[in-house]
Design goal:
This protein has six helices and no strands. Among the domains are: 44 residues; 45 residues, no CATH class.
Length: 137
Amino acid sequence: MATKRTRTPMSDEHKAALAEGRNQGRSVRRYLEALDAHRPKRGRKRTPDSMRKRLDKIDVELASADPLKRLQLIQERLDLTAELEAASEKVDLSGLEKEFVDAAAAYSARKGISYAAWRELGVEPGVLKRAGISRSS
């Protein structure tokens, strides 16, 4: 009969190391997701004023539009309203950036991530410098 293998419990140090790795990964992921979500879009920038003007024009066009055009105008109005609300929200990356700076060097060393990989993803050189990640790392 096969003997049942007993597991040795994880040491407190091992548990702490796993928790630290999870925290570092979470900090890095949250910062990179925020960077990605607030990356400038290509093309001509819309101002809140130009969006309001277009919303006014849509209201005028809706009165005389055929049903298909009215559908498109309503969708454009919904999109512009959402974009206008998003533009009024100020994004504060400083908290996420501080967590990233605290975790990035150890995370980078553990995962073998280079300076160039961080830069290609859009992380600014100053942030990497504060995190202790240099070009030669």
